[in-house]
Specification:
Layout lengths: L1 E9 L2 E6 L2 E7 L2 H4 L9 E5 L2 E5 L5 E2 L4 E2 L3 E7 L7 H13 L3 E7 L6 H17 L3 E2 L7 H11 L3 E5 L6 H8 L10 H7 L8 E5 L2 E5 L21 H6 L17 H7 L5 H15 L6
Parallel strand pairs: 3-5, 8-9, 8-11, 9-10, 11-13
Antiparallel strand pairs: 1-2, 1-4, 2-3, 4-5, 6-7, 12-13
Helix pairs in contact: 2-9
The protein binds guanosine-5'-triphosphate, magnesium ion and zinc ion.
Zinc ion binds next to α8.
Length: 289
Amino acid sequence: MQTGTIQQSLSGFYDIVSDGQIHRTRARGNFRKRGIKPLVGDHVEFEDGYLLAINPRRNQLVRPLVANVDAAIVVTAACEPTFSSNLLDRQLIALEAQQISPIIFFSKVDLLADEDLMRLQRIADGYRRIGYPVYFNRQPFNKPDLADLKSRLANQVVTMMGQTGAGKSTLLNHLAPDLDLPTGEISQALKRGRHTTRKVTLLQVGTALIADTPGFSSYEDFTMTKEKLPQLFPEMRALAPQCKFRGCLHLKEPGCAVKTAVEHGKIMPSRYDNYVQFQELIKNQKPKY
Ligand SMILES: Nc1nc2c(ncn2[C@@H]2O[C@H](COP(=O)(O)OP(=O)(O)OP(=O)(O)O)[C@@H](O)[C@H]2O)c(=O)[nH]1
Ligand SMILES: [Mg+2]
Ligand SMILES: [Zn+2]
């Protein structure tokens, strides 16, 4: 029996990395019977070309479909496609819910018009104040940023995350030029709604394992409860003990420290607006059986 990590899956086969070598395996039939799908990132046991067992997962994302990651690089286009704080916050809470550390990487800052640069810079600073590592630089893929990012990722399992065309594969190519991953044409990808990257694949980048992933055009993951949601916003989580009521949802309650912080400009209005919208979405969700 050998152990390893699933690197990619293609049409019923699972490639497993074990001691730097790749082994192509098939899943034993009873996984499907039990409704278990092996995922990229799974720690597994295998023997003679058969995947035999999956170890319990530390965490698991639905989009991208990947398991057991420490951190995620949320590649966020400053433009082309237009920046959306709502889409960014949806991804951040999905990561927070799985205890995956988000790293926000703004792409295409070089394409911003002068008048938009200041606005986006303020937004980037806002996320930095929350405590997230944020990369925002008008010189795309400059050496200091790449070196800083690489050292941050050392020895970690990481996933790329973000919209189609945001620049996930492009960033990976800058981190490790040998990868030579295919990248898309900006305008073309958006028009056809096509993904350049088609499947999740774990790649060795220095001492890190990083999953390149297909992008998405929208992001919906509201499986958390309304009580859990405020805990997925670090700046609200920090203030909640100062709210008058325990379990304050920061909506209509009096004496709410979060609402006061929004009024005083200490919490980004966009974050609070998105929070309120997400609460609404959770409330209106059809119950799943
Ligand atoms: N000017 C500029 N172009 C960028 C930047 N980042 C990415 N691009 C371009 O954006 C296009 C799309 O990049 P990709 O790396 O293919 O995007 P992706 O996120 O991997 O897309 P999917 O694989 O479809 O999910 C390519 O033409 C890149 O050259 C950037 O910072 N500045
Ligand atoms: Mg790609
Ligand atoms: Zn409150």
